[in-house]
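Input structure tokens:
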């Protein structure tokens, strides 16, 4: 057999880095509640430097606007924990981490409440993960359980899974599969 490991033998982060490298894609990460854990998870994989542009930790709500370009009106109206904020963060980080005028291929974002206290009327465990690829942005809402550390870790896992799923959806679209619609 060849030297390439089957997908089942790879951990999700290694699978994602490998898939991005094979496709010549790059990824940029915008994080709030995860505070850099998504980028750390990606860069622990050998070869990540070929695909990971970097990350922005926009923990303060104002940074989501000033650095990532999320609408100030949206933030004032809905707060930082909202699906449109996650979408704006994912789209914004692709632009912000452009290299030589080229946006990152993929932007992924995390925003939510890790706890222990509610934020903006939302309980701990409410999390939004945004994924922006080309002209499409998808947001997943998560209802996670556990303590602060467990919620943050589950969010990292969900962010990696969301990007993998989005890339697999692209595979389905390219092969003519009429599977899930958006």
């Amino acid at each position: 057999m060849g030297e390439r490991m089957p997908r089942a033998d790879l951990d999700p982060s290694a699978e994602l880095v490998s898939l991005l490298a094979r496709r010549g894609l790059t990824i940029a990460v915008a994080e709030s509640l995860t505070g850099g854990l998504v980028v750390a998870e990606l860069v622990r994989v050998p070869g990540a430097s070929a695909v990971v542009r970097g990350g922005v930790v926009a923990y303060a709500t104002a940074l989501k606007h000033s650095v990532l370009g999320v609408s100030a009106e949206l933030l004032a109206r809905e707060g930082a924990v909202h699906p449109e904020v996650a979408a704006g963060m994912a789209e914004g980080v692709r632009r912000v981490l452009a290299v030589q005028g080229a946006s990152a291929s993929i932007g992924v974002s995390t925003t939510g409440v890790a706890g222990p206290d509610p934020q903006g009327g939302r309980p701990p465990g409410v999390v939004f993960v945004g994924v922006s690829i080309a002209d499409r942005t998808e947001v997943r809402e998560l209802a996670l359980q556990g303590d602060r550390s467990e919620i943050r870790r589950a969010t990292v896992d969900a962010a990696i899974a969301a990007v993998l799923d989005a890339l697999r959806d692209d595979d389905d679209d390219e092969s003519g599969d009429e599977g899930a619609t958006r």
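Confidence is low (pLDDT under 50) at residues 1-8, 177-182. The chain has one domain: 10-171.
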